[in-house]
Design a protein that fits this description.
Nucleotidyltransferase, domain 5, ROK_cs (chains A, B, C, D), homotetramer, EC 2.7.1.2 (chains A, B, C, D), alpha/beta, 314 residues, 37% helix, 10 helices
Chain lengths: 314, 314, 314, 314
C-alpha cells in the first residue's frame, strides 16, 4: 500500500530510494561506500535508510548486495568484494538500528525482480534475467516467484560450465559462462580481434587513447553503431557464447522471456541480435517448440534498488 | 481423500494403478501398447482406466507419457516414439471416454513428483531428479511445485550442452548431456574400454555372449560389484560426466537433493560415488556453500505412475 | 630422364598417365573401377599401365590410392572403400603383371608431392598439404622429402583431435579435424545455417532443387561468390576450424607454406581468407615468428597422378 | 673422430662438457648464469668453452638454449627468460671469442637428439621426444634428421591446441597442450585433487610442509610409489592429457617411439602407464596399425648437453 525503501550497495556508492507500489522512485539518498566494509558499511546503510525514513512513512527496507545470502535471507554467507562482512546477520544489525523489517537479497536477483515487476518482464510469469557486466549475474522468476534455492546459490548462472577444461574462473572452477559471455569477456575478445587485425582496428582505437589496453566497451559499442566490421564481429563472438548459454538455460527453465541487463545492454540490438542468432543455433529440438524472447532490460542501474524495495513489501 | 488412477505409457505396456493419498498402489491393470499409436493407444488408456474404475471410487486420472505436453497440460505437442499422437488433445479424448477429470504430464516430471512426494525426496522442498536410461530425463521441484515452464520444455536437462561441438544428439543439437551421461553413453564407454583393454575385459564379456556388441548394462554392474577394475572405470567415466552436469544444474537450481533414477540406479553407490566425486570436482565456489545430496531413487519403475496419480489429485 | 606412369585409383575411374620429368602429362588412359575390388582392380591397374607402355618407353609405375600403405611401400595395409584388397602385396602383383618397378603411395601424399614438385609448393622445402574433400587428407614434405613415418600413418592430419569428446569419426575416435573442416563438414554447416535462417537462404536454395538436403557445395560457392551473406558465413565457420587445425600443425611442422587442395578449393579466396584469419587467430606466439603462407593448390585432380609418377622415378 | 663441446644454458648454471663420438661425457665445466643476460651470458658461455678447450682438442661447440633459433641456426630470435639476448647473432659472438665453429640449437631439440643418438631412441629413425617440465618441450627426429622447420618453430608441441577456448597459455593462445600435460599442470591437478578430497590427502601432504601450496612433485611421486590412491589418480589425469596429445601427434608424425623426459620422468611407469592408456584410448584407427612405444628418457639432465655436442660434430 505504502512506501518501502530499496538500498543498493555498489562498489563506490550506497544508493537508497523510496519506492511506491508501482515501482516509482519517489526520493533518493546516498552515501559513499566505506572502503573498510564491516560495521562502517552497515552504518552507512542504516544512515541512508534513516534519512529516507525522515519524511515518508516507510513499511520496510530491502537491501541488494553482491553476495551469497542465507536461505532465510538474514545473513551474508560470503561476499567477494566487501571486507569483514562474511557471516554478518545483516537483518539483525539493520533492524536494531532502524526499527523496521529488513529483507536482504542478492543484487542480480533484485534486478531480475525489478524487471519482472516493473520493467521488461512485466506481465510474464517465468523469466530469466542476465546481468552482463564484470561477470554474469542471474535471476530467475518461476511462476511469479523468485527462485532462491536451498542454500542461497540458485541462479548463479554465470558459473554454468560452458567449456570443459576452459578458462579458470574466480570461483575456482574452469570454463564458466561468465569467462566467455561477460562484459569482461567482450573486452578480451576485442583485444584479441584488434591484435589479429590491427589494420582494421582504427575505428575502435581512435575512440580511446590509441592503445589496445585502453580500449573501452563504449568505444566498441560506438564503432559497432557506425557499422564498423571489426566491432560488430566482437559482439558476434560474445553474443554467440551468450546465446549458447541461454539455449542450455532455456531447456532447464523454459522461460517466456530472457531479459539482458547490465552495462553492455547500451549496445541494444548490436548485442541482442547475435544473442538471438546464437540461441537459435544451439537450441535443442529447434523448431519443435517456441523459444523465449530475448529482450533488453528497461530499468537500467536502478533495477536492483526498485526490485529489492518491492521484495521488502509485505 | 480418496483414490486416483495413474497410468504410465511405456514402449510395450500401458500400466495403470489405483493410488491412495499416501502413494500406496492398491490395484493394477495393464494393456499392451498398440504399435499403431493414435486412437488405438488412446482407447487402451481409457480401457485401463475404466477397468480400474469398476471396483473403486476414483476422483481423477493422471497419465504419464514421454512427450512434450502443452503448458495447459491438455495436448501432446510432440512425442518421439508414438505414432499419430502429435497434436492430440488427450485431455478431451480421455475425459469424453471415461467421464473423469484427466491430468497429463511428462514421464520424467511424473517420476520426479513421485519421488518428491513418496520416495527419496520426501520431506524436501527443492529437488532435481535425473532419470538415467536411454537418455536423461529430468524433473525439477521448486518450493514444492513442479517446474513446468512456459512452453512445456522445462527440465529437459538431458539437453544441457556439456561439450561444445560434441556428439550429435537426437534433438538436433551437439554435445548434449545425455550423449555423455545416459545409460546409452555408459554402454558406449564400456565398448570403448573393452576395445582399448581386451585383456582386462573377460570379467565383463563372460557375463554375456562374449561379444563387445552383446555387452549389457547388467553385466557391467555385476562385474563392478565384484570389484572388477575395468567395470569400475566405466562407471567412473560416466559418473564424472553426470557429476559435471549436476554441478552446472546445481548453480542454477540449488536443490537440496539430486535424486538419480532410471535403470542404471541398480548399480547403487557404484554409480552414485563417481557422480558425487564428479560433482564436487566441478562445483563452482567449492567449499563456500553446502552441496546437494546425491541419492538413489526409491520407487523404481512405478515412480511415474504413482507420481502422476498424485498430480491428478485435486 | 625418361617417362614414368602415374595411376590414380578413384571411386569410379582408374586414371593413368605418362608423365615426363617436368611433370607434364603426355598421354592418358582409363578404366572403370571394378566394384568388386580385389584381383579385378589389380588387373584394371595393370591394363592401364600396359596400355600406356605400348607407345612410350616407361621407367617405372607409381600408383596412388586412398589406403594405409606399409612402410616399405609394397602392401595395402588397410583401405576403407575397396573390397578384398587389405593385405595385398600390390608391388608384387603389379610387377609380375607388367614387368616394371612399381611404387605405391597414399593418395594425399601423392597429391602433396605433386604440388611440391610441380604446383603450388614448387621451390619450397617444407610444405604441408591439406586435401579437403569428403574428409581431410594430408601430405607433409620435410626437407624436400615426403614424411612417411614408421608405420604408414604419418600425415593423417584429418584425425588430429581438435574437439575433445566431439563428433564421432569414421576412424573410431572423437572430435577429429575432418569432422569440422572437411567438405562434408562445410555441407553440414550449410544445412545448419539454412535451418537457423531460412529467410536468408533463398540465394543458396534457388541454385539447387530448393530443399536443404539437396544443397551442394557448388551452390554455396556460387552464392558466396555473389556476396551472399549466409553463404559467406558458412565458409567462415568451416575456415575457422581449418585455420585452427593449421595453427596446431604449424607449431609442430613449421612449414613454409600450407597448400589447400581438394574440391572445396574451387572457392578460392572465399575459403582461403577465413582459413588465414583463423590460423592467425589461433597461432601460438603470434607476432613472434613468420606464419606459413596459405595457398591454393594448382594441379587440381591430377596432382596425385602426377605426384606418384614422380615418386616412381628412380 | 675427436671431441666436441656441448653447453647447456639453464636458469641458474651454464653447464659445459667435452663429449666424444660415443656420447660419453669426458669432462665438465660450469659457470653461474649471469642474471643480467646479454653480453655477460655470452661471455660466460665463452669462458666455459675456453676452459674445456685448454686440455683437449675440440672440433666445435654446440650450445643448447630455451629459445627460438633462426633457421640458419645463428641468431636468437626470441627467448622468454633471458634478458637482452633477442636478436643476438650468437654464432658470430661466440666464434669470434673462441675461434671454433659453433652450432646453436633449441634445448628440447638438443635433448631429443641426445636421446636419439645415445639414449632411449638409439637405433630408431623416427622418434618424438617430450620434455615434460614447467612446460612441454618437443623434439622430432624424422629419417634420422632433426625436424627444424622453416622459421625455427617446429616441434613446439607444447602449443598444440588440445582444448578449444581452454586455459590461457603464456604464448598468448588458449588450450595449449602444456597447460594440461606439463609438470606445472600435474601440480595443479594435485592441488585440485587435494582440495576436493582433503580427507584422502594426508599421504601427500605429510611429505611436505602440510600445506596445499607447498606440495611438490616429488611428494606426489613418492606417495604414488607407495600405492596412494589420490596420488595415482593425479598421474592418471595428467597422463590422460599427455596420451591424448601423443595420439594426435602420432597421426601426424607416426614415430616408432615417443620418449618422455623432463623432471616428471622420475615417476617412471607411474606416469608412463597412464600415458600409454590415454594414447590407446584416443588413437584414431585403433587396432588397424601399430602404435609407437612410450618409453622413458635415459640421459636425464645431460641429454641436451650431449645432444648439442653431437649436433656440433661436423
Amino acid at each position: 500500500m505504502g512506501y518501502t525503501v530499496g538500498i543498493d550497495i555498489g562498489g563506490t556508492k550506497v544508493l537508497g530510494g523510496v519506492v511506491d507500489e508501482t515501482g516509482a522512485l519517489i526520493k533518493r539518498a546516498r552515501r559513499d561506500t566505506p572502503a573498510e566494509g564491516g560495521v562502517a558499511l552497515t552504518q552507512a546503510i542504516a544512515d541512508v535508510a534513516l534519512e529516507l525514513m525522515k519524511d515518508s512513512e516507510i513499511e520496510s527496507v530491502g537491501v541488494s548486495v553482491a553476495a551469497f545470502i542465507s536461505a532465510d535471507r538474514k545473513t551474508i554467507l560470503a561476499t567477494p568484494n566487501i571486507k569483514d562482512w562474511n557471516g554478518v546477520n545483516l537483518d539483525y544489525e539493520l533492524t536494531s538500528r532502524i526499527g523496521l523489517p529488513v529483507v536482504i537479497e542478492n543484487d542480480a536477483n533484485s534486478a531480475a525482480w525489478g524487471e519482472f515487476k516493473f520493467g521488461a518482464g512485466r506481465g510474464k510469469e517465468n523469466i530469466l534475467m542476465l546481468t552482463v557486466g564484470t561477470g554474469i549475474g542471474g535471476g530467475i522468476v518461476v511462476n511469479s516467484n523468485l527462485l532462491r534455492g536451498s542454500f542461497g546459490i540458485a541462479a548463479e548462472i554465470g558459473h554454468l560450465r560452458i567449456v570443459p577444461n576452459g578458462l579458470l574462473c574466480g570461483c575456482g572452477a574452469y570454463g564458466c559462462f561468465e569467462q566467455y559471455g561477460s562484459g569482461t569477456a567482450l573486452l578480451r575478445h576485442a583485444r584479441e580481434a584488434i591484435q589479429a587485425h590491427p589494420d582494421r582496428a582504427s575505428n575502435i582505437l581512435n575512440r580511446g587513447d590509441g592503445s589496445i589496453e585502453g580500449v573501452k566497451g563504449s568505444a566498441i559499442t560506438a564503432a559497432a553503431g557506425d557499422g564498423d566490421e571489426l566491432a560488430l564481429s566482437i559482439f558476434e563472438i560474445t553474443g554467440d557464447y551468450i546465446g549458447a548459454g541461454i539455449a542450455s538455460l532455456a531447456v532447464i527453465l523454459d522461460p517466456e522471456a530472457v531479459v539482458i541487463g547490465g552495462g553492455v545492454i547500451d549496445a541494444g540490438d548490436i548485442l541482442l541480435n547475435p544473442i538471438r542468432t546464437g540461441m537459435e543455433k544451439y537450441m535443442p529440438f529447434a523448431g519443435k517448440h517456441p523459444h523465449p524472447q530475448i529482450i533488453g532490460a528497461q530499468l537500467g542501474n536502478e533495477a536492483g534498488l526498485v526490485g529489492v524495495a518491492d521484495l521488502a513489501r509485505i
